[in-house]
Amino acid sequence: MADILLIALLALLGAAAAGMLGALALRLLRHRPLVVSLTVVAAVAVAAMLAGTLTVAWAMFLSPHDLTVVTTVVAMAATVSLATAMLLGRWVAARSRDLTLAARSFGEGGTFAAPEAQATAELAALTRELAATSAKLESSRERERALERSRRELVAWISHDLRTPLTGLRAMAEALEDGMAPDSDRYLRQMRREVERMNDMVGDLFELSRIHAGSLTLTPTRVSAHDLVGDALSGAHPLAREHGVRLTGDRVDAVPVVVDSKEMSRVLDNLLINAIRRTPADGTVAVAAQRSPDGLVLSVTDGCGGIPEEDLARVFDTGWRGSPARTPPAGAGLGLAIVRGIVEAHSGRADVRNVAGGCCFEVTLPAASG
Fold it and tell me: Is 118 exposed, middle or buried (0-12, 13-18, 19+ CB in 10 A)?
């Protein structure tokens, strides 16, 4: 038993010496390619075995022939181990280079194309993460491009819509100054309407800027869906009568919600104004509020004839106004963007879908707890 313990101690001392030298080598070479580190690891394993074996052999006073045999066997094992480590290192290094080149093209603004060659589990996991990140960035780039297009369209439309009333105001003001206005009262009323129109546009721009800047402050209170829909219908009735459109609100469930009443009234007002202006005379605009598994669904259904399928995804974009046939003379395409911003600030969502003869805008809000 004592001999076994002595042999184990001697082997441990020899292997420990080789291990310490290997650890020092790994530290000095830690910034070198992976193949070098793998070769060092294989060399340390072989050197530890060789050192332990030779230490024990010398302590046991083996004959020179036997010591040569042991040394030869260990040397052959060392050669095979080092060759295997180098091959493995070169294979891993090649896969790493492929991944580096793929990541470089990804970082230069392209999409990530995963290397076709098989790699280790760790490199494969990294490849999957880079592919997922590439997909997310591409989606983000697409949203950014769409947002930039919307902004350009918004600037163009706002410039046009502001220039038109300003031109009219200038002409009417000059006519009044020159005493050429045959009906000054009518001119003044028209000027007032144009000023109110511009004031509404500036107000929409200010509201949208607050939403985009994240500075929209909500004052939530517990209200009933009956109150929200009732107030919205009352405010929209004059416009509906002017356009010859019927307003209905028969399907309203008594569902309480916690919302900012002022902002949600603006949401319903924008949806109703949009629906009334796009519904032909003798048409119907229906407002409903129904309970759903997600909370409360407020819907406004019009008779606009429907929205092209390719435009459904853009309805709530800033500046979107649809085709010229569906675009009213007034408005800069901000109303629905404001609707989405306010609804999302309430942790809800806004959707639109086509129905028979028109489209249905739906606002889903979380139901009040308790």
Answer: exposed
CA distance 55 to 160: 93
Residues of the chain with pLDDT under 70: 1-19, 21-23, 25-42, 45, 49, 51-63, 67, 85, 105-110, 112-113, 116-117, 119-120, 122, 150, 153-154, 157, 160-161, 212, 319-333, 369-370
CA distance 146 to 140: 10
DSSP state of 199: H
Integer angstrom CA distances of residue 355 from 7, 244, 300 = 88, 21, 11
Helix (H) or strand (E) holding 223: strand 221-224
Nearest to 44 by CA among 21, 12, 13: 21
Looking at residue 369, what DSSP letter applies?
P
Mark residue 87 as left, alpha or beta (left: phi above 0; alpha: psi -120 to 50; beta: remaining): alpha
**Which of 370, 352, 367 lies closest to 271, judged by CA?**
352
Distances (CA, A) of 346 to 161, 217, 244, 364, 367: 31, 11, 33, 10, 11
Q: How far apart are CA 314 and CA 312, in angstroms?
A: 5
For 139-171, the pLDDT digits (tens) are 777 778 777 776 776 677 677 667 777 888 888
Report the relative pairing of strands 284-292 and 246-252 from DSSP bridges: parallel
Q: Give whole-number Cα distances, 77 to 46, 64, 84, 144, in Å.
A: 8, 20, 11, 60
Smallest CA-to-CA distance from 62 within 73, 77, 78, 76 is with 73
Pairing, β 256-259 against β 221-224 = antiparallel
Q: Where are the beta strands (DSSP E) in 293-357?
A: 295-301, 349-355
Dist. CA 362–CA 237, nearest whole Å? 20
Query: What percent helix, strand, coil does the chain show, rounded to 5?
Result: 65, 15, 20
Cα–Cα distance between 45 and 43 in angstroms, integer? 5
- Residues 74 and 125: their CA atoms lie apart, in Å, by 37
What does the buried/exposed string (b/e) look like for 6-39 if buried means 16 or more CB atoms within 10 Å of the residue's CB? eeeebbeebbeebbebbeebeeeeeeeeebbbbb
